[in-house]
Every structure is written in C-alpha cells, then in structure tokens.
Amino acid sequence: xxxxxxxxxxxxxxxxxxxxxxxxxxxxxxxxxxxxxxxxxxxxxxxxxxxxxxxxxxxxxxxxxxxxxxxxxxxxxxxxxxxxxxxxxxxxxxxxxxxxxxxxxxxxxxxxxxxxxxxxxxxxxxxxxxxxxxxxxxxxxxxxxxxxxxxxxxxxxxxxxxxxxxxxxxxxxxxxxxxxxxxxxxxxxxxxxxxxxxxxxxxxxxxxxxxxxxxxxxxxxxxxxxxxxxxxxxxxxxxxxxxxxxxxxxxxxxxxxxxxxxxxxxxxxxxxxxxxxxxxxxxxxxxxxxxxxxxxxxxxxxxxxxxxxxxxxxxxxxxxxxxxxxxxxxxxxxxxxxxxxxxxxxxxxxxxxxxxxxxxxxxxxxxxxxxxxxxxxxxxxxx
Length: 383
Ligand code: NAD
Ligand code: MG
Hints:
single chain; alpha/beta; 7-stranded parallel beta sheet; 5-stranded mixed beta sheet; binds nicotinamide-adenine-dinucleotide; binds magnesium ion
C-alpha cells in the first residue's frame, strides 16, 4: 500500500535517511520542510515532487523561491518560524515524520496530532518539552504516535503483542555510553567541540551528537519513554550496551526479557515507523553474530554525567521540569559549539536550572514556551 509522508527536517540526518526509506518503499512525499539548507531541499524536491515545501530561514527560503519561480507548476512554499506547522496543516499526509531538531518541532507534532494524522516521531524534544500536551492531543483525536528513536522503536517492537502491556514490569533502555564512557570529570574538563562531535557508533546531527556525549540524550530518552509507554521513571532502567546492537529491552512479570537487536542503522527504526504495522524488507545490512563476538554491559555514570542525573530529577519533578532541562540544554549545547562554554558546564547548567524551580503541575503551550525561554535565559546568565 502506498502512503503519503510529510518529512519535516528532511535535510538533516534522520530526514535524509527517511527519504531513502521512502524511495525504497515507493511512498509519496506530501511535504518537505527544512531549516536552511536550500540546495539540498531543492534537490529533494526535484526527486520527490511534493506539492508543499517549508523553509524556516527567510534567506534560504528566498533562494528556494527563486528556483521555484522557473517551474511551470511549482510546489507551494511556506516560509518562516511557522512554516513546518503550516505545511503539516495543509499537506494531505497519512504520516508526518518529524525529524526537526529541538523544541522547534513541537508545534508541528501538535498540529499533526490535532488533525488526527499519524506521527512518526524522531523529534524527542516535542515529548520532553510538551509531553502532557502531545499525549492529550493524541488521545483526544485517537491519533497514533510511532517512535523513530531506535530505543523506543525497539521497546515498541517488543510490545507488539496486545497482551504484553498488562504484564510489563520494566523497560531496559540501552545507552552506548557515548565517546567519553569511563572518563572522569577531570578528563572531561578539557573536551572541546571537535572531540565531542565524534560518536563511536552513530552518525547524527550536531546537537544529538553532543547530547550523546553528555548523556543528555539518554535523559531525554528516559522522559520520552515515560510518555510513550506510560511508565514512571523507577520502571525504566538505563544500561550501557557499548556496541549499540541491543537497542533496548522489556521485562515482564515472569522476568522474561525481550530485546530488539540490529546493526546501528537508523533506517531500521525509521522504516518500521513508516511501514507499521507491516514489516518490510529494508536496506540495512543483517547483524553478523560471528563478527560481533561479544556484547558488553555496564551501569551509566550519573555522578560524572550530570545531564542524565538532571533529567532523572526533572522526570521525578514532572510538570515543566523536563521542558526546563531541555531548554537549558539546547542553549548550553549551542554555546558549547560556539566555544563559549566548557563541556562540564552543560551538565552544571542543566542541573542548576532543574534544581532552581518547582515546575510541577499542568501547563499550556504558552507555559511551555515561557519555561523554555526562561531556561535559556538562566543558561546565558550563568555562563
Ligand atoms: P540534524 O541536525 O541532522 O537535522 C535537523 C533538521 O531539522 C534539518 O533538516 C534542519 O534543517 C531542520 N531544522 C532545524 N531547525 C529548524 C527549525 N527551526 N524549523 C524547521 N526545521 C528546522 O538532526 P538529526 O540528527 O536528523 O536529528 C533530528 C531529530 O531526530 C532530533 O530530535 C534528534 O534528537 C532525533 N534523533 C536523531 C537520531 C539520529 O541518528 N540522527 C536518532 C534518534 C533521534
Ligand atoms: Mg536514541
């Protein structure tokens, strides 16, 4: 069956891999959205011919528009901060694959769910910053939220038996440990952006690569798992699995454990979200156990990697605390990449921001953006 997919953040790491899967499956593209990479967006538009394009950056949009003007039947172009959301509202998509990075993806997630459109979610920050709103919107319209994040896809795949939810005891969320596994605070003090941008197992966008090095990514994923699988933090255990081959596991009441394994290749979880409930042949290579030889496990070091500890505190506090952690982290990572903060400052500031407020209770979308802005301000004032 063909499907129409809107790909948001199509010029990024997940966006590009999503288009590979879409090409392979012969699906249609209902819309493409990008931040600022005009050249790549135009190339994608030429191949996939979507009726709608969206570009957040105004200068890049002008470049795109100039090329579109030469076409006989150009796609409609949305421009600016709300471009992705407007594209989602207009597009006739069966699935919106949201691969925008950061809280910038929240509006589009909410808009798709409000329309009752299925969302394949890579943009974990949507759930971390506005989980209450996202889940409420999904439940109100009977929508479907499919995980693209490899760990959450693994858990989702392990829970396909409809009876499994009743006996689920805990989730075992695996972590690679990042490039600095085993390092001390003293070692980490000297780490600069170039080193932090080298990840051992996955090739990803800059922000999530830094999040993997600080273990913020695992903290965000802890919160993402709470929302997706409706579990409190104490039922989500984080285990380092160095090879990134076991993508996560679930344990049932009889202590039976199911795991999903595969080579570290995001096209597997992307494809599962797009073809679900079907499973289809895909482009990722098979796992070769004879080559692999061993699987290593260990505990995460939350004493050293304070971002993970901060996310756990935020998860316990609830309300807007995860939103504050996320906003502080987005700002701190941007400043770290500009060379204005040290590696350890990221954890210090995310934790300081979470500790600095009570955050509990219900919230509106305006509250989310106000909390995000306050967290970013906190970081800039505490450099
Ligand atoms: P990336 O930086 O490679 O790509 C981000 C995309 O978002 C780009 O297309 C960019 O143009 C677009 N974008 C940025 N700001 C925007 C804005 N304001 N409005 C609209 N579009 C904007 O990032 P990525 O690695 O592809 O990650 C995307 C999301 O998927 C993140 O939330 C990340 O945590 C999640 N994720 C990524 C991976 C991975 O392997 N890369 C794995 C799991 C989850
Ligand atoms: Mg992940």
